[in-house]
Amino acid sequence: MSTGQKKSSDATMSEDETLQKINNQTLGTSPQAFPIMSLPDGSKVPTGTVGALLVNLREYDSTKDPERRKELEVSIRASVPVLIRTGLFHLFTPDEWISGGSEGRQLVGRIAKELEKQT
């Protein structure tokens, strides 16, 4: 395999592995505690994403430290594509997330709408 092919393959795996690492760090679990699973359509998603998102949203809402919020936004943003792939936004639309009183929920809704526009 050429270096270019390897980098392309690594980049694809990197997104799932990065989210898996975020999930494990957020939830205080060991590496591989939440494996990457295959959905019926063949796409892969790191398990633990919803749990980690809930923890991050709670902290996002409770902190007023702008630097900490920026760090949390990275983790929250990384989880939204998985929520889209698993169909969560068919149950609760991005607008429903935005209309909630939680700033973290509003952020998730805005990111989901942004990603919808890109597809």
UniProtKB/TrEMBL annotation:
Pfam families: DUF7709. InterPro entries: DUF7709 (IPR056126). Residues 17-115 form the DUF7709 domain. This is DUF7709 domain-containing protein. The lineage of its organism: Eukaryota, Fungi, Dikarya, Ascomycota, Pezizomycotina.
